[in-house]
Write a structure and sequence with these properties.
Blueprint: H1 11-42, E1 58-68, E2 71-80
Length: 97
């Protein structure tokens, strides 16, 4: 549905849009936290040459559905080649962040 500029959105549409924005912000925060956890675990940032020929490196991602404060989200859980990475923001076998 299109709306004219300067005409306020109906209340229901404003609530829906507000919820979408809050979900996006929460998802973004969880994703950034998870990326940082992997960087700390491996002791180098993603795409850094410091990871070349290391005995442990990133090994893909798995998707996981979680419940966040403002709804549900699907996030990517990183894994490492040695299988030792334990996420802190969203623990294994947990569905809430």
């Amino acid at each position: 549905m299109k709306y004219k500029q300067g005409v306020p959105l109906p209340v229901q549409d404003r609530r829906s849009r507000c919820k979408q924005v809050l979900e996006a912000v929460a998802y973004s925060g969880v994703r950034e936290n998870m990326d940082g956890e992997m960087d700390v675990h491996l002791a180098y940032e993603k795409n850094s040459v410091a990871g070349n020929n290391s005995d442990n490196s990133r090994n893909g991602q798995l998707s996981k559905k979680i419940q966040i404060e403002h709804g549900k989200a699907v996030i990517s859980i990183h894994s490492d080649r040695s299988g030792q990475f334990e996420p802190i923001a969203v623990l294994k076998h947990e569905t809430e962040a």
